[in-house]
Amino acid sequence: MPSLPSPAQPATITIAPLEVRSASLAEQAYERLRQLILDRQISAGSPLQEARLAEDLRISRTPMREALVRLAGEGLLVRRDARSYAVRALGTKEYFDCMRAREVIECEAIALAVGKITDAEIQTLEADIQALHDGEHSEIEHFHLDDRFHLLIANASGNVVFPRLVEELRVNARLFRLHSPLHRQRENHDEHGAIVEALRARDPERAREAMRAHLRSLQEDVRRALIE
Fold first, then answer.
1. Is 136 helix (H, G, I), strand (E, B) or coil?
2. 3-state helix, strand, coil in the chain (%, to 5)
3. What pTM value is reported for the model?
4. Tens of pLDDT along 95-122?
């Protein structure tokens, strides 16, 4: 996969100032930047300068530094030099490693969820599928709905660790910049539908296979894109 260029100039983004509220300024800065990264509003490799970000958010450099250090600790940023970071770009191998880990965890999670998920939760999944299918959606909207779909199932498993692992793996995989969900919305609709049908049937093996087929389809889509 071609390496991404490293811009010479800091990322040009518009960030609204933070408001003082109950959450600390460091926490607010962390949440704002994390969402911008996950929504791909900041390109991988773009420099993020502590002083510039603090000025944009109208906060001091200390809470800004705390937020950047926290994001780096989570693997979303890498340090460029003493005063700047950059969004980490996920390599091809790490992407497929994340997806393989998702297979292991999410297939087990859905098998456990079959006996615990409520009819109301299944209806929520169906509503999310329909929302993704109807009309035009931005990449950000697609990611948010897809997050809710997969995390609802992980939470329904009853295993308190699975949701955290699924979220972490999804976040890491989102740093892989080759793949966008928008060109495969029909595939996602059909695959998510098969997952929900298996949950409605209360069939753990069928649910496990539907989830595995979905995750492997995503990986195959990326493999084809790498070859082209």
1. coil
2. 65, 5, 30
3. 0.81
4. 999 999 999 999 999 999 999 999 999 9
